[in-house]
Automatic annotation (TrEMBL), chains A, B:
Pathway annotation: Amino-acid biosynthesis; L-tyrosine biosynthesis; (4-hydroxyphenyl)pyruvate from prephenate (NAD(+) route): step 1/1
SUPFAM superfamilies per record: 6-phosphogluconate dehydrogenase C-terminal domain-like (SSF48179), NAD(P)-binding Rossmann-fold domains (SSF51735)
Reactions the enzyme catalyzes: prephenate + NAD(+) = 3-(4-hydroxyphenyl)pyruvate + CO2 + NADH
Sequence ranges assigned to domain Prephenate/arogenate dehydrogenase in this UniProt record: 13-302
Protein name in the entry: prephenate dehydrogenase
InterPro entries to which the protein is assigned, alphabetical: 6-PGluconate_DH-like_C_sf, NAD(P)-bd_dom_sf, PDH_C, PDH_N, Preph/Arog_dehydrog, Prephen_DH
Gene3D superfamilies: 6-phosphogluconate dehydrogenase C-terminal like domain, NAD(P)-binding Rossmann-like Domain
GO BP term, example: tyrosine biosynthetic process
One term of GO molecular function: NAD+ binding
Amino acid sequence: MVLDPPLAHPLIGRLTVIGVGLIGSSILRAARARGLAGTLVAFDGSEAVRARAEALDIADLVAATPAQAVADADIVILCVPVGAMGAVAQAIAPHVKAGAIISDVGSVKGAVVSALRAHLPANVHIVPGHPVAGTEYSGPDAGFATLFKNRWSILTPPEGTDPAAVATLSGLWTAMGANVETMTPEHHDLVLAITSHVPHLIAYNIVGTAADLEAVTQSEVIKYSAGGFRDFTRIAASDPTMWRDVFLNNREAVIEVLGRFTEDLIALQRAIRWAEGDKLFELFTRTRAIRRSIIEIGQETAAPDFGRSHD
Amino acid sequence: MVLDPPLAHPLIGRLTVIGVGLIGSSILRAARARGLAGTLVAFDGSEAVRARAEALDIADLVAATPAQAVADADIVILCVPVGAMGAVAQAIAPHVKAGAIISDVGSVKGAVVSALRAHLPANVHIVPGHPVAGTEYSGPDAGFATLFKNRWSILTPPEGTDPAAVATLSGLWTAMGANVETMTPEHHDLVLAITSHVPHLIAYNIVGTAADLEAVTQSEVIKYSAGGFRDFTRIAASDPTMWRDVFLNNREAVIEVLGRFTEDLIALQRAIRWAEGDKLFELFTRTRAIRRSIIEIGQETAAPDFGRSHD
Ligand SMILES: NC(=O)c1ccc[n+]([C@@H]2O[C@H](COP(=O)([O-])OP(=O)(O)OC[C@H]3O[C@@H](n4cnc5c(N)ncnc54)[C@H](OP(=O)(O)O)[C@@H]3O)[C@@H](O)[C@H]2O)c1
Ligand SMILES: NC(=O)c1ccc[n+]([C@@H]2O[C@H](COP(=O)([O-])OP(=O)(O)OC[C@H]3O[C@@H](n4cnc5c(N)ncnc54)[C@H](OP(=O)(O)O)[C@@H]3O)[C@@H](O)[C@H]2O)c1
């Protein structure tokens, strides 16, 4: 299964991506592969990334400034860390075209909606988004055109947003292979706290705990990591800036879900201490069914060990 | 990279595997592929598994009873859940050959050493072991010959064990592609608590917490699982009997490591509450280095997303 062939006519005139990292460069690659925009424009705050974007020939134009980047753009998608969204919105605000759609891909939505609204003019359509797709790598070389294929992209348009603008953005994501769902920013932030943010925090934490144990050397932790630990290190290798920003900007939902997690974990610890085998067995059986469902709806591979090579 | 070609002469005469699941059937397959034993014998407590072992032609003889299975065996490897080791040792004890090597693959070593010693006669060599390799699947169909390739197999011979017996078993694992290390059962149980047991417990726990949240539906958890959650469900889909037995038999080390994990997690939660971005950033940077080391020593793939298919 690959992306569908290019469209006969582009969906939109000029598409600008700001922040050419894993997500931004994947959007550019998918849009190019499917011919979704008349002109593809890229901009990044880092000169090195702009040079790399040029070298990769990832857009029709790699702009030199935010102003040049958004001039005349029909859709602008901000693909920078959540904490940088406000500054980027401020930088582009004087230059965006009236009627343009301004979107983003930030992993937190409530805080980003506030940041965009605070800076952008009233004559643009703000349609925040979040593709639930990624890898542990970042930067312009990490992206690929099929990243969004069969993944969900969540849009969180504020009440009163023009339905036509939502439909256009939704069409863009669909054309990149994604399924689209809309919900409120608040609900998004709670759902993602459990399906993404707290899992990342736990992964970072167990890797940190392992590194700090005195009785077990770090080289032992590394050597015997195939017992399960290494799965966690993938997630705990994700970009530190991105994830710091996620936790700082989704504090309430993360702390709420974390409270539940800890409560459950302490109950489990107690069951181990008192040798309550049936309680353990019951939980361990229940959790299997959830993975089965994830595989059934095509959000996970059924291949053993994620399909890791065993040769 | 595949297994090396078969040996010209088998390393041992008669090799018996008791418990033809993921690990047992992988040993049989690897031993067959490399010609490691003159005769391969299999036994399982389940009639269905014995029939399946016959159908798969996984051994030269699928024994009908424990007595028949171990008669004349030079090496016997117990590949049953940790909680069943004692019963199996008891069942084979009257029938093992003097001088035979009795080993196992249990994920906990202290408790298994005690169980084996309690039942086996003094005229056999007890050399407990644990291959740090596996997948989330179980049963005779789940095994494969390359499972142990480039993984570590830990032996925990009690003090005073005949070095020749340890060397023979070590040679067997090496011939199946594994690297061999020896340590005390106590140290093994602590190392594995951090590299395997607690990670599994945390994975089971987060999946349970997610399933129980009222504000987020289970279908949302499943739909948006590609944000990180699905990684945890792989581990949380492992065999409930096996894992119940692991936690019941490695209580002390698991509870000790869990205490450290929770302490660290609460400190992290506090850093989020007080918006201490630098603390988060520092941890998230430190953890990356550990994954890099795991990849460097060949215990993990460098492919993004474990090499999951993105097409
Ligand atoms: N990674 C994922 O799995 C994933 C999944 C879904 C959504 N997201 C979201 O997508 C966004 C981007 O993540 P990513 O993984 O693509 O990150 P990334 O690979 O690190 O790329 C981000 C890019 O934005 C640039 N940038 C930072 N601040 C900027 C600014 N003020 N103006 C212009 N460019 C700036 C960065 O340049 P420098 O290198 O100079 O910092 C970098 O090139 C984040 O909001 C994240 O929450 C990520
Ligand atoms: N899975 C892993 O990743 C992994 C990794 C390293 C070590 N280990 C260890 O390896 C051992 C086996 O695990 P596995 O994953 O191979 O399990 P598995 O696939 O479930 O296989 C275990 C087999 O043992 C049989 N069995 C249970 N009790 C028995 C008894 N009293 N007598 C004879 N056969 C009996 C089971 O039959 P029934 O189906 O009738 O119960 C089953 O066929 C465990 O001690 C585990 O801790 C596992």
